[in-house]
């Protein structure tokens, strides 16, 4: 197969056989977000590059290695979004949401783009569901955002997933921590990768997030941020834990969570699965109290999370989760000639207007081929339509499962077919009971 007929490396097609699962998962995400008062926001797929340089951080892997950046025809530097928080905050500043009644709660689903080595659960084009809670400094907001993520995972059927939390403090208490990290990593600098040598002076916390096995091994013995928290950050973290306990949410404190983006402060968290290999984090987020001011807006504390949908689908598949089946056609109408095809189009329009999923022949096939097709697409009922049926205004509907035949009036097809569907529903209920 030629390259033009292959998807670009690191991208995936979502086929019709899978899209109904995505629709179910995305529908649940937005439905639960609405329960918590989060309304959908949609932002552009690309931004001025400076949006990400100022927010994500120029010492992160995302900025240093992974962004898709190009100059447009006007000579402006543009970047495909590697994550959605920065664009949402840019929008909130531009459109005055940061000056509205706070907190402002928004959610989103969208594609993101990072140039990295494709592997299971890590693609160059991937999709995220996320929320941002703009305008609350309270620990209760941290717990609510975590609870929302947990409820999404539970309601779509994810099992064996654990919540890990940490606090990485504020800029003030991180000064002492950065000094301790510099001292520790300086004693191992001859083993660090080139990128981490640069980070050692500029932002030693980023070394903790390095994907190099050597650097990760060194980082495992580094000082722990929890030992350097100021009194306010300690109190905030303890209060977050109290709220989680009050809400019945189990967690583990993992002092090694730092998250991969520079804007995080205080609470950070991850929902982790053991069922998808190395890329085990399904959802990650935390607080970013300085980001809005850093991007030119007022000093407004905020927090949020991002949930990778591809990784989530991998977890669901690995756990054999029960997802809704794709909806099959209620009725397939098989016309025998041109006049019957015209009548079939009319009948399909009437039934679709009533909400019945109806299909008919679009390939001018013979009856035998049509019935094979009806069976292949899983039609629940079929109707053969020829000259006699049109003249008499009567036709027979066949139950494709048990072969039962019911005669209907074509002039009242919506009513008669509706009655057949209702009888089938009652019959199914009775069989279950």
Based on the coordinates given, report the CATH architecture of the largest domain. 2-Layer Sandwich
State the end-to-end CA separation: 53 Å
Read across the widest sheet, the strand sequence of neighbours is 1-5-6-11-10-9-7-8
Q: Assign the CATH class of the largest domain.
A: Alpha Beta
CATH homologous group name of the largest domain:
Bira Bifunctional Protein, Domain 2
Q: pLDDT below 50 for ≥5 consecutive residues: which ranges? A: none
Structural class determined from secondary elements: alpha+beta
**What oligomeric assembly is this protein in?**
single chain
Query: At the third CATH level, what is the topology name of the largest domain?
Result: BirA Bifunctional Protein, domain 2
Radius of gyration: 28 Å
Q: Tell me the number of structural domains.
A: 2
Mean pLDDT: 92
Strand content: 15-25%
Q: Helical proportion?
A: 40-55%
Number of helices in the DSSP assignment: 15
Shape: elongated
Largest sheet descriptor: 8 strands, mixed
Say how many strands there are: 16
């Amino acid at each position: 197969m030629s390259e033009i007929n292959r998807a670009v490396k690191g991208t995936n097609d979502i086929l019709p056989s899978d899209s109904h699962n995505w629709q179910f998962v995305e529908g649940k995400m937005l439905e639960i977000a609405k329960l918590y008062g989060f309304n959908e926001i949609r932002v552009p797929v690309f931004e001025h590059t400076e949006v990400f340089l100022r927010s994500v951080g120029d010492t992160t892997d995302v900025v240093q290695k992974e962004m898709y950046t190009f100059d447009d025809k006007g000579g402006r530097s543009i970047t495909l979004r590697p994550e959605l928080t920065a664009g949402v905050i840019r929008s909130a500043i531009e459109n005055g949401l940061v000056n509205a009644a706070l907190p402002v709660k928004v959610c989103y689903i969208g594609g993101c783009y990072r140039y990295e080595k494709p592997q299971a659960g890590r693609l160059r084009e991937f999709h995220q569901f996320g929320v941002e809670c703009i305008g609350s400094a309270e620990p209760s907001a941290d717990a609510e955002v975590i609870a929302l993520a947990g409820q999404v995972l539970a309601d779509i059927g994810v099992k064996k997933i654990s919540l890990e939390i940490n606090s990485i403090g504020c800029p003030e208490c991180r000064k002492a921590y950065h000094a301790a990290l510099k001292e520790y990593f300086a004693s191992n600098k001859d083993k660090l990768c080139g990128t981490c040598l640069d980070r050692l002076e500029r932002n030693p916390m980023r070394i903790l997030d390095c994907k190099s096995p050597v650097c990760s091994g060194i980082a495992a013995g580094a000082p722990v941020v929890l030992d350097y928290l100021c009194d306010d950050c300690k109190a905030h973290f303890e209060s977050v834990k109290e709220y989680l306990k009050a809400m019945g949410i189990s967690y583990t404190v993992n002092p090694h969570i730092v998250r991969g983006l520079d804007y995080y402060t205080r609470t950070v968290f991850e929902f982790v699965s053991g069922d998808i290999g190395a890329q085990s984090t399904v959802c990650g987020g935390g607080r970013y109290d300085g980001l809005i001011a850093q991007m030119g807006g007022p000093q407004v504390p905020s927090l949020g999370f991002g949930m990778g949908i591809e990784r989530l689908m991998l977890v669901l598949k690995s756990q054999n989760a029960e997802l809704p089946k794709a909806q099959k056609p209620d009725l397939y109408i098989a016309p025998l000639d041109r006049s019957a095809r015209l009548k079939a189009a009319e009948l399909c329009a009437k039934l679709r207007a009533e909400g019945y999923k109806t299909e008919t022949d679009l390939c001018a096939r013979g009856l035998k081929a049509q019935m094979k097709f009806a069976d292949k697409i899983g039609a629940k009922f079929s109707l053969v339509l020829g000259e006699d049926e049109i003249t008499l205004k009567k036709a027979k509907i066949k139950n494709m499962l048990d072969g039962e035949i019911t005669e209907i009036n074509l002039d009242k097809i919506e009513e008669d077919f509706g009655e057949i569907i209702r009888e089938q529903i009652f019959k199914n209920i009775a069989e279950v009971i």
